[in-house]
Amino acid sequence: MSAGKTYYPRGRSPVVALKPTTLDIPAGEVTAILGESGAGKTTVGRLVNGLTRPTTGSVSIDGVDISRLPHKKLIDATRKIGVIFQGSALLSRRTALENVELPLQISGAGRAARRARARELLARVGLEEKAGAYPSQLSGGQKQRVAIARALSARPDYLLADEATSGLDSETTRSILRLLRELRDDLRLTVVLITHEMDVVRELADRAVLFEGGALVEQAAVSDAARTPDSRLGRLVLPPVNIAPAPPGTTTWEVGYAREVALDWLPELSARLDARIPLLGGISEVINGHPVSRLYLAIPSGLPAQAVAGAGEALGLVLLPRGGDAPADSRKVTLAR
Ligand SMILES: Nc1ncnc2c1ncn2[C@@H]1O[C@H](COP(=O)(O)OP(=O)(O)OP(=O)(O)O)[C@@H](O)[C@H]1O
Ligand SMILES: [Mg+2]
Known about the structure:
The protein has 337 residues and is an alpha/beta fold. Helix content is 32%, strand content 27%.
């Protein structure tokens, strides 16, 4: 999409919810939309699924500009987008199964066909045995899973989730994220995930897009963001940490992983440099199934910086001097960040 949105509330001054913004959502990936409250995330979601029309620009789904379509055609065009919102409202007088059937009923599917499809989806979200339960008899996480099943019943190509896991405990959040990952992989779903929970991003997202005050300020592959600690997204994905000061005679070096590394890299690095290397602190996370770290080591300042960087490189590490007693030849080292 390449669009902007200004709201004109009656009797109040206009609100620029989204400045003119160009955003492409890659197919088959999970894109996380991040930002503080009021940043414009939900506005992006509403534009993408046609709930709101842009004030400027256009929004295309699979090459079809939906921003000027008449209502009926818009409904057709956005049918391929399944939507889940926070605390998705299920119809309280319908069972879980009937709720999942709803979109199929609206699109005119026959009773037997929609029953079968709804059962298959409830099984998919692990709620086969709750088919006959009413929403009031389900936990928050179970309701959310029913909402996912309902969003998927019309076989969408896209899934748009706005704070779908907010307010759920971490175990339930995990099970829902696992489910979304399976859906991406099995059904090749394109997922747009609006969230303020960074755990969700680390666990599931391929790309992250950061909004601030109605403007897109950064976007990157999550794994790249983790390796760029000076970027805003980098700091969100791997937050800065406090570390112990380097002991006298040593220099603080920052370690990042350039690629998949052997987990015993620290003793290996010690051996290669023939030095004891204390760990001063840092942060280590698994992002999208891959270990990513930013750690701080105290390395004897007498060692040539080139040798330290070289030893790290051989192990798949990116080593950068970060202060303390500067190594003798640190000026010679130039490493791309
Ligand atoms: N219908 C509306 N009328 C007027 N202003 C609106 C409307 N919808 C949203 N806004 C304003 O647009 C801005 C962006 O809102 P939006 O809902 O996109 O934020 P958000 O990033 O989703 O925030 P949150 O994390 O709190 O959900 C806010 O300042 C909001 O008050
Ligand atoms: Mg919102």
